[in-house]
Amino acid sequence: MTVSKSHKVHRVLLVFVSLAFVLVCLEFPALIGILDYRSIFGLGRLSSYPTDVRDPELLHIHPPHSHYSGARLGGLATLAYQIPQSDMTPYQWDTRYDENGFRNERDLKSADIVVIGDSFVEDMTVPQAQLTTSLLARLQGKMVANLGQVGYGPQQELIVLKRYGLPLRPSTVVWMFYEGNDLQDVLDYDHSIRNPPTFWSAFFERSFTRNAVGQMKRLLLKPPAKPSGLAHSGIFQASDGKKLNLYFYRLSGPLTKEDVGALDETTGIIAEAFKLCVAQGSRLLVVFVPDGFRVFRQFCQFPEESQCRKWVPNDLPDRLRSAVGSVSGEIGYLDLTPNLVNALKKGAVSYRADDPHWSADGHRIAAEAINDYLSSTVSR
Protein backbone atom coordinates (compact mmCIF):
# COMPACT_ATOMS: atom_id res chain seq x y z
CA MET A 1 0.00 0.00 0.00
CA THR A 2 1.53 3.29 -1.05
CA VAL A 3 1.33 6.41 1.05
CA SER A 4 0.13 9.48 -0.74
CA LYS A 5 2.27 12.57 -0.98
CA SER A 6 -0.17 14.56 1.18
CA HIS A 7 0.05 11.95 3.94
CA LYS A 8 3.84 12.17 3.91
CA VAL A 9 3.64 15.95 4.22
CA HIS A 10 1.19 15.62 7.12
CA ARG A 11 3.51 13.19 8.89
CA VAL A 12 6.48 15.51 8.48
CA LEU A 13 4.42 18.45 9.75
CA LEU A 14 3.26 16.37 12.71
CA VAL A 15 6.87 15.56 13.61
CA PHE A 16 7.86 19.23 13.40
CA VAL A 17 4.83 20.35 15.41
CA SER A 18 5.58 17.71 18.05
CA LEU A 19 9.21 18.77 18.30
CA ALA A 20 8.18 22.41 18.48
CA PHE A 21 5.71 21.60 21.27
CA VAL A 22 8.37 19.74 23.25
CA LEU A 23 10.81 22.64 22.78
CA VAL A 24 8.19 25.15 23.95
CA CYS A 25 7.55 23.01 27.04
CA LEU A 26 11.28 22.91 27.76
CA GLU A 27 11.80 26.63 27.16
CA PHE A 28 8.73 27.96 28.98
CA PRO A 29 10.18 27.56 32.51
CA ALA A 30 13.31 29.41 31.37
CA LEU A 31 11.19 32.09 29.71
CA ILE A 32 9.32 32.92 32.93
CA GLY A 33 12.51 32.66 34.99
CA ILE A 34 11.79 29.64 37.18
CA LEU A 35 14.49 27.44 35.62
CA ASP A 36 18.01 28.25 34.50
CA TYR A 37 19.46 25.48 32.33
CA ARG A 38 22.96 26.68 33.17
CA SER A 39 22.46 24.98 36.54
CA ILE A 40 21.85 21.70 34.70
CA PHE A 41 24.44 21.90 31.94
CA GLY A 42 27.03 23.84 33.97
CA LEU A 43 27.64 26.41 31.21
CA GLY A 44 27.74 30.20 31.38
CA ARG A 45 27.61 30.28 35.15
CA LEU A 46 26.72 33.48 36.98
CA SER A 47 29.78 32.90 39.15
CA SER A 48 31.82 29.86 40.11
CA TYR A 49 28.62 28.21 41.38
CA PRO A 50 25.98 27.04 38.89
CA THR A 51 23.00 27.58 41.20
CA ASP A 52 23.65 31.23 42.09
CA VAL A 53 20.64 33.50 41.72
CA ARG A 54 20.56 36.94 40.16
CA ASP A 55 20.40 40.00 42.35
CA PRO A 56 19.81 43.50 40.93
CA GLU A 57 22.57 45.05 43.05
CA LEU A 58 24.94 42.18 43.84
CA LEU A 59 24.51 40.58 40.38
CA HIS A 60 24.67 37.08 41.90
CA ILE A 61 24.50 35.45 45.32
CA HIS A 62 24.25 31.91 46.71
CA PRO A 63 20.69 30.74 47.43
CA PRO A 64 19.60 30.58 51.09
CA HIS A 65 20.80 27.47 52.92
CA SER A 66 22.53 26.16 49.80
CA HIS A 67 24.85 23.17 49.93
CA TYR A 68 27.74 22.36 47.61
CA SER A 69 29.82 19.20 47.61
CA GLY A 70 32.25 17.69 45.18
CA ALA A 71 35.86 17.08 44.25
CA ARG A 72 38.30 17.96 41.50
CA LEU A 73 41.93 17.51 40.63
CA GLY A 74 43.74 20.77 39.95
CA GLY A 75 43.17 24.41 40.86
CA LEU A 76 42.35 27.47 38.76
CA ALA A 77 45.76 27.47 37.09
CA THR A 78 44.94 24.12 35.49
CA LEU A 79 41.99 25.74 33.71
CA ALA A 80 44.30 28.13 31.89
CA TYR A 81 47.54 26.18 31.46
CA GLN A 82 48.83 22.69 30.76
CA ILE A 83 50.20 21.39 34.03
CA PRO A 84 51.54 17.89 34.78
CA GLN A 85 49.03 15.83 36.72
CA SER A 86 51.68 15.23 39.35
CA ASP A 87 51.63 18.97 40.13
CA MET A 88 47.85 19.15 40.51
CA THR A 89 46.32 19.47 43.96
CA PRO A 90 43.30 17.29 44.85
CA TYR A 91 40.38 19.36 46.17
CA GLN A 92 37.29 18.23 48.06
CA TRP A 93 34.50 20.29 49.55
CA ASP A 94 31.22 19.89 51.39
CA THR A 95 30.04 23.38 52.29
CA ARG A 96 26.80 24.78 53.65
CA TYR A 97 25.52 28.33 53.71
CA ASP A 98 23.24 30.38 55.94
CA GLU A 99 19.89 32.01 55.23
CA ASN A 100 21.60 34.85 53.35
CA GLY A 101 23.88 32.65 51.22
CA PHE A 102 27.07 33.14 53.24
CA ARG A 103 29.38 30.51 54.68
CA ASN A 104 28.30 30.45 58.31
CA GLU A 105 27.40 27.32 60.24
CA ARG A 106 24.16 28.85 61.47
CA ASP A 107 21.94 31.83 60.80
CA LEU A 108 23.27 34.88 62.62
CA LYS A 109 21.30 37.65 64.30
CA SER A 110 24.37 39.44 65.66
CA ALA A 111 28.18 39.29 65.45
CA ASP A 112 31.08 41.01 67.17
CA ILE A 113 33.18 41.01 63.99
CA VAL A 114 32.10 40.78 60.35
CA VAL A 115 34.60 39.89 57.65
CA ILE A 116 33.77 41.05 54.12
CA GLY A 117 35.53 39.99 50.93
CA ASP A 118 35.56 37.61 47.99
CA SER A 119 36.54 33.95 47.58
CA PHE A 120 39.51 34.39 49.93
CA VAL A 121 37.01 34.86 52.75
CA GLU A 122 34.47 32.26 51.59
CA ASP A 123 36.96 29.66 50.24
CA MET A 124 34.80 26.66 49.42
CA THR A 125 37.77 24.25 49.30
CA VAL A 126 38.90 24.81 52.90
CA PRO A 127 37.04 23.09 55.78
CA GLN A 128 34.90 25.41 57.92
CA ALA A 129 37.11 25.02 60.99
CA GLN A 130 40.21 26.13 59.05
CA LEU A 131 38.78 29.33 57.57
CA THR A 132 40.21 32.71 58.57
CA THR A 133 36.88 33.66 60.14
CA SER A 134 36.58 30.47 62.19
CA LEU A 135 40.16 30.75 63.48
CA LEU A 136 39.72 34.46 64.23
CA ALA A 137 36.57 33.67 66.23
CA ARG A 138 38.53 31.24 68.42
CA LEU A 139 41.47 33.62 68.84
CA GLN A 140 39.23 36.56 69.73
CA GLY A 141 36.71 34.55 71.72
CA LYS A 142 33.98 36.37 69.81
CA MET A 143 31.31 35.73 67.21
CA VAL A 144 32.72 36.32 63.71
CA ALA A 145 30.47 36.46 60.63
CA ASN A 146 31.86 35.27 57.29
CA LEU A 147 30.39 37.57 54.62
CA GLY A 148 32.68 36.55 51.78
CA GLN A 149 31.26 35.73 48.36
CA VAL A 150 33.12 34.39 45.35
CA GLY A 151 33.52 36.89 42.53
CA TYR A 152 32.63 39.99 44.55
CA GLY A 153 34.48 43.31 44.26
CA PRO A 154 34.40 46.53 46.34
CA GLN A 155 31.00 47.76 45.08
CA GLN A 156 29.30 44.48 45.94
CA GLU A 157 31.13 44.28 49.26
CA LEU A 158 29.80 47.73 50.20
CA ILE A 159 26.27 46.46 49.47
CA VAL A 160 26.99 43.40 51.62
CA LEU A 161 28.10 45.72 54.44
CA LYS A 162 24.87 47.71 54.23
CA ARG A 163 22.49 44.81 53.68
CA TYR A 164 24.00 42.07 55.84
CA GLY A 165 27.00 43.33 57.82
CA LEU A 166 25.89 46.37 59.79
CA PRO A 167 22.50 44.86 60.73
CA LEU A 168 24.52 42.36 62.81
CA ARG A 169 25.70 45.34 64.93
CA PRO A 170 29.41 44.46 64.87
CA SER A 171 32.03 46.32 66.86
CA THR A 172 34.55 45.67 64.07
CA VAL A 173 34.31 45.37 60.29
CA VAL A 174 37.24 43.64 58.55
CA TRP A 175 37.36 44.35 54.82
CA MET A 176 39.64 42.04 52.81
CA PHE A 177 41.03 43.49 49.57
CA TYR A 178 42.64 40.96 47.18
CA GLU A 179 45.15 42.48 44.80
CA GLY A 180 44.74 39.73 42.21
CA ASN A 181 41.40 40.88 40.87
CA ASP A 182 39.62 43.45 43.05
CA LEU A 183 40.52 46.41 40.82
CA GLN A 184 39.34 44.50 37.75
CA ASP A 185 36.19 43.59 39.66
CA VAL A 186 35.48 47.31 40.06
CA LEU A 187 35.65 47.79 36.29
CA ASP A 188 33.63 44.64 35.54
CA TYR A 189 30.89 45.62 37.98
CA ASP A 190 30.56 49.11 36.52
CA HIS A 191 30.26 47.59 33.03
CA SER A 192 27.61 45.11 34.18
CA ILE A 193 25.54 47.82 35.86
CA ARG A 194 25.75 50.10 32.81
CA ASN A 195 24.83 47.23 30.48
CA PRO A 196 22.17 45.16 32.24
CA PRO A 197 20.83 42.19 30.30
CA THR A 198 17.57 42.68 28.42
CA PHE A 199 14.67 40.31 29.01
CA TRP A 200 15.41 38.37 25.83
CA SER A 201 19.17 38.25 26.30
CA ALA A 202 18.72 37.00 29.86
CA PHE A 203 16.27 34.36 28.62
CA PHE A 204 18.72 33.27 25.92
CA GLU A 205 21.49 32.83 28.50
CA ARG A 206 19.37 30.47 30.60
CA SER A 207 17.51 28.79 27.72
CA PHE A 208 17.51 25.06 27.03
CA THR A 209 18.48 25.54 23.38
CA ARG A 210 21.59 27.62 24.05
CA ASN A 211 22.85 25.40 26.85
CA ALA A 212 22.08 22.14 25.05
CA VAL A 213 23.98 23.32 21.96
CA GLY A 214 26.86 24.44 24.17
CA GLN A 215 26.98 21.04 25.85
CA MET A 216 27.03 19.28 22.50
CA LYS A 217 29.92 21.46 21.33
CA ARG A 218 31.81 20.72 24.51
CA LEU A 219 31.33 16.97 24.05
CA LEU A 220 31.94 16.76 20.31
CA LEU A 221 34.55 19.41 19.57
CA LYS A 222 38.14 19.17 20.70
CA PRO A 223 38.99 22.15 22.93
CA PRO A 224 41.89 24.39 21.89
CA ALA A 225 45.27 23.47 23.35
CA LYS A 226 46.21 25.32 26.51
CA PRO A 227 49.57 27.09 26.75
CA SER A 228 52.27 25.46 28.82
CA GLY A 229 52.19 26.21 32.52
CA LEU A 230 55.98 26.62 32.53
CA ALA A 231 55.50 30.22 31.35
CA HIS A 232 53.85 31.05 34.69
CA SER A 233 55.84 28.76 36.94
CA GLY A 234 58.48 28.93 39.65
CA ILE A 235 60.27 26.37 41.82
CA PHE A 236 60.18 26.75 45.59
CA GLN A 237 62.42 24.67 47.84
CA ALA A 238 60.73 23.96 51.14
CA SER A 239 62.51 23.80 54.49
CA ASP A 240 62.60 19.99 54.29
CA GLY A 241 64.48 20.20 50.98
CA LYS A 242 61.50 19.17 48.88
CA LYS A 243 61.01 21.19 45.71
CA LEU A 244 57.54 22.45 44.89
CA ASN A 245 56.46 23.56 41.43
CA LEU A 246 54.28 26.66 41.70
CA TYR A 247 51.99 28.07 39.01
CA PHE A 248 51.06 31.74 39.28
CA TYR A 249 47.57 32.30 37.91
CA ARG A 250 47.73 36.06 37.37
CA LEU A 251 50.38 38.72 36.93
CA SER A 252 49.97 41.81 39.08
CA GLY A 253 52.07 44.06 36.88
CA PRO A 254 52.29 47.86 36.65
CA LEU A 255 49.01 49.61 37.34
CA THR A 256 47.23 50.81 34.23
CA LYS A 257 45.24 54.02 33.89
CA GLU A 258 42.09 51.93 34.34
CA ASP A 259 43.55 50.36 37.50
CA VAL A 260 44.28 53.78 38.98
CA GLY A 261 40.74 54.88 38.22
CA ALA A 262 39.41 51.71 39.89
CA LEU A 263 41.58 52.42 42.93
CA ASP A 264 40.14 55.93 43.14
CA GLU A 265 36.64 54.45 43.01
CA THR A 266 37.63 51.96 45.70
CA THR A 267 38.81 54.85 47.87
CA GLY A 268 35.38 56.45 47.58
CA ILE A 269 33.76 53.13 48.51
CA ILE A 270 35.96 52.83 51.60
CA ALA A 271 35.04 56.40 52.56
CA GLU A 272 31.33 55.55 52.38
CA ALA A 273 31.90 52.35 54.35
CA PHE A 274 33.79 54.30 57.03
CA LYS A 275 30.92 56.79 57.43
CA LEU A 276 28.47 53.94 57.84
CA CYS A 277 30.71 52.26 60.42
CA VAL A 278 31.21 55.46 62.39
CA ALA A 279 27.46 56.08 62.47
CA GLN A 280 26.99 52.67 64.08
CA GLY A 281 30.02 52.81 66.36
CA SER A 282 32.00 50.15 64.49
CA ARG A 283 35.68 50.37 63.64
CA LEU A 284 36.89 49.54 60.15
CA LEU A 285 40.01 47.56 59.26
CA VAL A 286 41.12 47.22 55.63
CA VAL A 287 43.29 44.13 55.03
CA PHE A 288 45.49 43.84 51.93
CA VAL A 289 45.67 40.28 50.58
CA PRO A 290 48.70 39.86 48.26
CA ASP A 291 48.83 37.44 45.36
CA GLY A 292 51.08 34.42 45.62
CA PHE A 293 53.81 35.79 43.37
CA ARG A 294 54.39 38.78 45.66
CA VAL A 295 54.95 36.39 48.56
CA PHE A 296 56.98 33.66 46.81
CA ARG A 297 59.07 35.58 44.26
CA GLN A 298 62.19 36.13 46.37
CA PHE A 299 62.27 32.44 47.33
CA CYS A 300 61.71 30.96 43.87
CA GLN A 301 63.92 29.83 41.05
CA PHE A 302 62.36 30.39 37.65
CA PRO A 303 62.88 28.13 34.64
CA GLU A 304 64.21 29.70 31.45
CA GLU A 305 60.74 29.35 29.90
CA SER A 306 59.06 31.23 32.76
CA GLN A 307 57.83 34.75 32.11
CA CYS A 308 57.89 35.25 35.88
CA ARG A 309 61.61 36.02 35.63
CA LYS A 310 60.63 39.44 34.28
CA TRP A 311 57.68 40.14 36.57
CA VAL A 312 58.03 42.99 39.04
CA PRO A 313 55.30 43.54 41.67
CA ASN A 314 53.65 46.95 41.62
CA ASP A 315 53.25 49.36 44.53
CA LEU A 316 49.57 48.62 45.17
CA PRO A 317 50.02 47.86 48.91
CA ASP A 318 51.46 51.34 49.51
CA ARG A 319 48.92 52.98 47.21
CA LEU A 320 46.06 51.33 49.06
CA ARG A 321 47.59 52.30 52.42
CA SER A 322 47.78 55.93 51.27
CA ALA A 323 44.24 55.79 49.91
CA VAL A 324 42.91 54.48 53.22
CA GLY A 325 44.87 57.12 55.13
CA SER A 326 43.50 59.88 52.92
CA VAL A 327 39.98 58.93 54.00
CA SER A 328 40.73 58.87 57.73
CA GLY A 329 43.55 58.04 60.10
CA GLU A 330 40.99 56.15 62.18
CA ILE A 331 40.67 53.39 59.57
CA GLY A 332 42.98 50.48 60.30
CA TYR A 333 45.20 49.09 57.56
CA LEU A 334 46.99 45.74 57.58
CA ASP A 335 49.18 44.46 54.75
CA LEU A 336 49.44 40.68 55.12
CA THR A 337 52.50 40.43 52.86
CA PRO A 338 55.14 40.60 55.65
CA ASN A 339 53.25 38.02 57.74
CA LEU A 340 52.98 35.59 54.84
CA VAL A 341 56.62 36.11 53.82
CA ASN A 342 57.91 35.59 57.37
CA ALA A 343 55.84 32.44 57.73
CA LEU A 344 57.21 31.16 54.41
CA LYS A 345 60.75 31.59 55.74
CA LYS A 346 59.75 29.23 58.54
CA GLY A 347 58.34 26.68 56.14
CA ALA A 348 54.61 27.55 56.08
CA VAL A 349 53.48 27.40 52.43
CA SER A 350 50.46 29.70 52.48
CA TYR A 351 49.19 29.35 48.90
CA ARG A 352 48.13 26.39 46.77
CA ALA A 353 50.71 25.31 44.20
CA ASP A 354 48.19 25.38 41.32
CA ASP A 355 45.66 27.92 42.58
CA PRO A 356 45.84 31.58 43.65
CA HIS A 357 43.99 30.95 46.93
CA TRP A 358 45.35 30.25 50.39
CA SER A 359 46.11 26.86 51.82
CA ALA A 360 45.04 26.09 55.38
CA ASP A 361 48.34 27.67 56.50
CA GLY A 362 47.42 30.87 54.67
CA HIS A 363 44.12 31.13 56.53
CA ARG A 364 45.89 30.50 59.84
CA ILE A 365 48.51 33.16 59.19
CA ALA A 366 45.85 35.68 58.15
CA ALA A 367 43.73 34.96 61.23
CA GLU A 368 46.73 35.34 63.55
CA ALA A 369 47.80 38.61 61.91
CA ILE A 370 44.29 40.10 62.11
CA ASN A 371 43.96 38.93 65.71
CA ASP A 372 47.27 40.52 66.65
CA TYR A 373 46.28 43.79 64.98
CA LEU A 374 42.86 43.95 66.65
CA SER A 375 44.30 42.99 70.04
CA SER A 376 47.05 45.60 69.84
CA THR A 377 44.76 48.51 68.92
CA VAL A 378 42.33 50.22 71.21
CA SER A 379 38.67 49.74 70.28
CA ARG A 380 36.88 52.92 69.29
Q: Write down the secondary-structure element order.
A: HHEEEHEEHHEHEHHHEEHEHEHEHH
Mean pLDDT over the full residue set: 91
Rough shape? globular
CATH superfamily of the largest domain: SGNH hydrolase
Question: Which structural class do the helices and strands define?
Answer: alpha/beta
Which regions are unreliable across 5 or more consecutive residues at pLDDT < 50?
43-47
CATH topology of the largest domain: Rossmann fold
Number of helices: 14
CATH architecture of the largest domain: 3-Layer(aba) Sandwich
Largest sheet: 5 strands, parallel
The proportion of residues in beta strands is 15-25%
| Counted beta strands | 12
Domains (count) = 2
How much helicity do the residues have? 40-55%
Strand order of the largest sheet: 6-5-7-10-12
List keywords for this structure.
Rossmann fold; 14 helices; 12 strands; five-stranded parallel beta sheet; 2 domains; alpha/beta; 380 residues; three-stranded antiparallel beta sheet; 42% helix
Short description:
This protein has helices at 5-31, 38-41, 77-80, 119-122, 132-140, 154-165, 182-194, 199-206, 208-220, 257-280, 292-296, 316-327, 337-345, 360-376; strands at residues 53-55, 59-61, 67-73, 90-96, 113-117, 144-148, 172-178, 233-237, 243-247, 283-289, 300-301, 332-335. The protein is α/β, with parallel strands linked by helices and 380 residues long.
